[in-house]
């Protein structure tokens, strides 16, 4: 694991290189950073910034943090950046993603409301529980909030550009804020306390829905979805899959006796 001075030196070298090359992408992931590099906020042309284990591009392709650096998660203080995010007005992709066992302390999104062009945001494996700062980010298309402390998605109600949303392993139970999201194509609710999919009945673009290990009992509201291609509903209380959905369900509600749900 690189020491803080080593990680800081690598970060500054990458920032300097980006200042010269202006590629628009900066990877500062897994450098063991504990303080924000002041030079970062001078890169007002940046469109992609990775501060986590990797980042997802607009096509949902994942890029791990640059190889060659021993794994050392950043522990940057969110509060110190609140008034600085507005210096990166062109940012479209931002990753704060942690990893299993990190114990990521990132719990505050304040300041992100000043990133009007943001399209992709990865919050997975962080301590985030409040999405309020995202409520005005109307260009947001991809949001990964899996493995967080999230329970309330009402701040997403007006983000109609959302097309990929991962809520897996959260405390989210109410999907009503998503009922007016015509662009939503992928919704992952694996291992959540969701009980009803009724709010999803009017989503014209939804093609993949993961309800594995939820408390959903009735899939009937989904029969009206014209684009649905994949339905995952293993380990749920669902007794019967509507006939029109059987061909879409790639996993039965009740797997063979003796099998236990994955963690």
UniProtKB/TrEMBL annotation:
<dbReference type="InterPro" id="IPR050836">
    <property type="entry name" value="SDS22/Internalin_LRR"/>
</dbReference>
<dbReference type="InterPro" id="IPR032675">
    <property type="entry name" value="LRR_dom_sf"/>
</dbReference>
<keyword id="KW-0677">Repeat</keyword>
<protein>
    <recommendedName>
        <fullName>Leucine-rich repeat domain-containing protein</fullName>
    </recommendedName>
</protein>
<dbReference type="InterPro" id="IPR001611">
    <property type="entry name" value="Leu-rich_rpt"/>
</dbReference>
<dbReference type="Pfam" id="PF12799">
    <property type="entry name" value="LRR_4"/>
</dbReference>
<keyword id="KW-0433">Leucine-rich repeat</keyword>
<dbReference type="InterPro" id="IPR025875">
    <property type="entry name" value="Leu-rich_rpt_4"/>
</dbReference>
